[in-house]
Structure formats: structure tokens, C-alpha cells
Specification:
The chain is mainly alpha-helical. The protein has a domain at 288-500. The chain has helices spanning 15-31, 37-57, 59-63, 87-113, 119-137, 142-160, 166-198, 218-231, 243-246, 252-261, 263-279, 281-286, 290-309, 314-334, 338-369, 380-383, 385-399, 406-419, 423-449, 465-483, 486-496, and strands at residues 2-3, 9-12, 66-76, 79-85, 498-499.
Length: 500
């Protein structure tokens, strides 16, 4: 492997502020258009496309070796709200902005086909969630990251409780209490202590040095590390994962937002950003923080997969699959080897496109056939071949089979575990792959080869094109980035400074 320079050429870029403001402005405009649904959805669509274009505009500067920053305002010395685009930022910014475009068009079809209430509020809160996610992606320091992390928690509560019934409010309360309580109990004290120790909360421009002075006591760093891992509870690590399956009471587009676009990706992005840029590879190696973290999240990978095997509700099975798959990202980074970090970070992208496909398919199945349970889906694949075909391909990605995107993640993680000389981690990854097959393969098999149950409603066909087209676009991208991963891998290699 060839080392490349990680030196930062810092350039002020006002469009970073515009990127964050686009979804916020779009949300505010949408709120005024309750009686104009077509205009409302046109604004949502235009906002998503414009955000994606602005994020793409940062790529040439990053390829030229520049780091883009945009200071908004200072609060105290060393404490500011500042935005930054670097290789790490672009991994999540590209995922969130591109999937928002797809999700907006899918949501139009789903919400109208199901005649969901409060569609204006839904669209506004969806845009606010993206506002928070993009703010997280483009944060230049730990304070800005924390601020936007909390914005995501608050703005997605109305989406989880969308149906405004007892089940929705219960799921929403659990969601909000878990995420805000852990942030206040662990993250906020950690931020204050880091600020006292360091004098600022600014991320360094490489993943090696970390933020802490050389004379910082080891036990203090270890304590702060544990606080940060636990505080970012959106990462879904057991035992702080219960909010995620509970949030499945929300409409399917919300589930897709939670699992693929914003919420859980915010959790793992914040966790890995903190691991690499607050603590740093050198400090984590010195204090032996990486490998214990990898085994800790390895437990989540296995247990969540075992629980997924027992779930007959399709969305519940996908929810526990997400709990498991998120920990791949943290595990890869915790290996602290180039290939491990590459595998973990690229899985943010690969999981995003594959998992949104799976949830889109679950929504299409419900709209077209009113089926939620896998045991009721026998034979449906012959009536909905495009939907279940897309589901099968996205399942292969989650399993890690070529040529779909997830294969690249799994391959790099396996190589990374060998680089770290961790046979135990290798066995965890192999076992999880077998379990992935165990809970995904039966869905596709029943759909295409099972006998339809008696009393199956005749005339079932594919969901409306407004839902089917986004599904096919998402799964096509998932295959494309599996065959040609270089575009997204260029941002991953900017993080480590290592090619190959």
C-alpha cells in the first residue's frame, strides 16, 4: 500500500453554510403549504436535489487536497460553530444527500397511496432530520457535532410518533428518552471535560494524533472514551438499542430515514468520528482501546442477528438487522488497521443504499398486498417480481455476496481482522454472515417458491411506479457501487492517507 499525504490545505467555503441551510429553508417553506400538496412536494424534491448538487460541488476541492471550512460564530475561546468538508465528512454527506433525493420521491408515493395523515408535518420534519444529519456530517468540532446530533433527535420524534396513537406515542417516548438521556448523561459531561483538558473541541486534520495533551492521565482518556461510546446511543450498540426496534411503529419512509439515511448513520458517524479524530489511532493503540471495542460491538453483531432470526414481522427483522450491521462500521474502525477502517467507513455507504432498498420493499409490499409478516408472503414474489427481486439483491448486499456493495465492506473487514491478527473477530464476521443468510434467504425463498396461503387476496400487483422506481434506483446504485467502489473509496482513503 502507498501512503499519501494527509496535510490539510484549509480553504474557506461559504457553500458549506448553504448546504446546511437548504433543508432547513425547505422545511420552513413546506410548513406553509399544507393546502398545496403538489407544491409542497415540489419544494421537498427541489430542496433534496439542490442539496445533492451542492455536496457534489465540494468534490473537486477535496480531490485537490483542500479541506473546506466555514466558521459561523464563536461562543467562547476554542468553542465555535464551524463547518468543515473533508474526506470523512463527504462519506456521510454524500449518503445523506443522495438518499434524501430517492426517499422524497418514494415518500410521495407511499404517503399518498396509504392516505397517511399530517403529510405536511411529515415532509417538514423529514427535511429537518436531513438538516441535522448534514450538520453532523459537516461539523468541524465536537460542539457543532453535538448540537446537530441533538437536533436530529428532536426533529425525528414527530416522525416516530406520526400516527398519534398509543403505540406511536409509546415508541416515540422510548426513542426520545433513550437518545436524549444518554446524550445528557454521557456526551455533555464528556464534552465539558475535554474542553477543560484541551482548551478547545476542534477536530485535528488527521486520524493519528487525537486531541489530548501528552500529559493527560490514561484513566481519564479511557473514561471519556466510554462516555462517548455510550453517549452516541443512535449507534445501536447493545444494550442501548431498544429504541430502534420500538421506532418501527412509524410509517415505512420514516423507518427508511431512521435506518439508512439519517438517525442511525448519525450515530455511527459520530461514534467513528470521535474515535478517530478525538482519541486518535495512536492513543487508542497505546491504551488498547480498539480491540476490546471490536469485541464489545461483536457481541451486538451476533446477538442482534440471532434475534432477527426469530422475528416474523418483516420490519422488525430488518430493524434487528440494522442493529447488527451498524456494529460492522464501529468494529472496522476499532481494528485500527487501514483495511479495517476502510471496511468500516465504506459500510456507511453500502449499508445505506442496501438497507433503504429493503425498507422501501417492505413498504411496497404493505401498500400492494397489506402484508407485514414473512409467514404471509409465500408466493408474493411471483406477483411482485420487481419488488422481491430488489429485496433479494439488497439482501445479498447485507450478507456480503458479490457483486453487490456489501461484499466490498465484508471483504475489507475480513482483511482488516487478519491485519490486526484477530482470529476471534474473523470468526465473528463469518458467523454473522451465516446468520445473515439465515434471516434473509427465507424471505426471498418463500416469496418466489412458497405456496400462497388460502384466502390470499386476488389481483395483487406491484406498488405504484412512484414507489417502485425509487426502489429500482436504490438497488441499481447498490450493485453499481459493489462493482465500481472507487468513487466512494476515494473519500475513505483520504481519511487514512493510505491507498490500496
Amino acid at each position: 500500500m502507498e501512503a499519501v499525504s494527509t496535510a490539510a490545505n484549509i480553504v474557506t467555503e461559504p457553500n458549506l453554510g448553504l448546504a446546511v441551510m437548504i433543508p432547513l429553508i425547505g422545511s420552513l417553506v413546506v410548513m406553509t403549504l399544507k393546502n398545496h400538496p403538489n407544491i409542497r412536494e415540489f419544494i421537498s424534491s427541489c430542496s433534496s436535489i439542490l442539496l445533492f448538487i451542492i455536496v457534489l460541488s465540494f468534490i473537486p476541492a477535496l480531490k485537490a487536497g483542500q479541506t473546506l471550512v466555514y466558521p459561523i460564530f464563536n461562543i467562547l475561546p476554542g468553542l465555535s460553530i464551524t463547518l468543515r468538508a473533508d474526506g470523512f465528512s463527504m462519506i456521510f454527506a454524500m449518503v445523506a444527500s443522495s438518499l434524501w433525493v430517492i426517499a422524497v420521491f418514494y415518500s410521495m408515493g407511499y404517503m399518498r397511496a396509504h392516505d397517511e395523515p399530517c403529510q405536511t408535518r411529515f415532509n417538514a420534519c423529514f427535511a429537518l432530520a436531513i438538516f441535522g444529519a448534514i450538520g453532523v456530517a459537516l461539523s468541524d468540532n465536537l460542539f457543532t457535532l453535538y448540537l446537530f446530533y441533538e437536533i436530529v433527535s428532536v426533529c425525528t420524534y414527530p416522525l416516530v410518533a406520526h400516527h398519534q396513537d398509543e403505540e406511536g406515542y409509546s415508541g416515540g417516548r422510548k426513542y426520545l428518552i433513550y437518545l436524549t438521556t444518554t446524550a445528557k448523561m454521557f456526551l455533555l459531561p464528556a464534552l465539558i471535560l475535554i474542553y477543560v483538558l484541551v482548551g478547545n473541541l476542534d477536530f485535528p486534520h488527521n486520524i493519528f494524533t487525537g486531541m489530548f495533551p501528552a500529559d493527560t492521565q490514561s484513566w481519564v482518556i479511557v473514561m471519556l472514551y466510554c462516555f462517548c461510546i455510550l453517549g452516541f446511543a443512535k449507534n445501536g450498540i447493545m444494550p442501548l438499542h431498544h429504541w430502534l426496534p420500538g421506532a418501527m411503529v412509524a410509517p415505512t419512509p420514516v423507518s427508511a430515514l431512521l435506518h439508512a439515511v439519517a438517525v442511525v448513520k448519525v450515530g455511527v458517524f459520530c461514534t467513528t468520528r470521535t474515535m478517530l479524530y478525538v482519541f486518535g489511532v495512536d492513543t487508542m493503540n497505546m491504551l488498547n482501546l480498539g480491540i476490546p471495542t471490536a469485541y464489545f460491538v461483536g457481541f451486538t453483531i451476533i446477538m442482534a442477528s440471532v434475534i432477527a432470526l426469530s422475528k416474523d414481522n418483516l420490519k422488525a427483522r430488518l430493524a434487528y438487522s440494522t442493529v447488527s450491521q451498524l456494529s460492522y462500521i464501529i468494529l472496522g474502525v476499532a481494528l485500527l488497521t487501514p483495511k479495517g477502517i476502510h471496511g468500516g467507513l465504506i459500510h456507511i455507504v453500502n449499508h445505506g443504499f442496501s438497507k433503504i432498498t429493503l425498507f422501501f420493499c417492505a413498504g411496497a409490499i404493505y401498500i400492494a398486498a397489506h402484508k407485514k409478516y414473512i409467514s404471509e408472503m409465500s408466493g408474493l414474489g411471483r406477483k411482485m417480481p420487481f419488488t422481491f427481486g430488489a429485496f433479494a439483491v439488497a439482501s445479498l448486499s447485507m450478507i456480503g455476496a458479490p457483486p453487490v456493495a456489501g461484499f466490498v465492506s465484508k471483504w475489507l473487514l475480513l482483511v482488516g481482522s487478519m491485519e490486526a491478527h484477530q482470529i476471534g473477530i474473523l470468526l465473528i464476521l463469518i458467523t454473522s454472515t451465516v446468520l445473515n443468510v439465515g434471516y434473509f434467504a427465507p424471505v426471498t425463498y418463500k416469496a418466489f417458491f412458497g405456496k400462497p396461503p388460502e384466502g390470499t387476496k386476488p389481483g395483487i400487483k406491484e406498488a405504484p411506479l412512484s414507489m417502485l422506481i425509487p426502489i429500482l434506483i436504490a438497488v441499481t446504485i447498490s450493485v453499481y457501487i459493489g462493482i465500481n467502489p472507487d468513487f466512494m473509496m476515494q473519500f475513505v482513503t483520504m481519511v487514512t492517507g493510505v491507498k490500496g
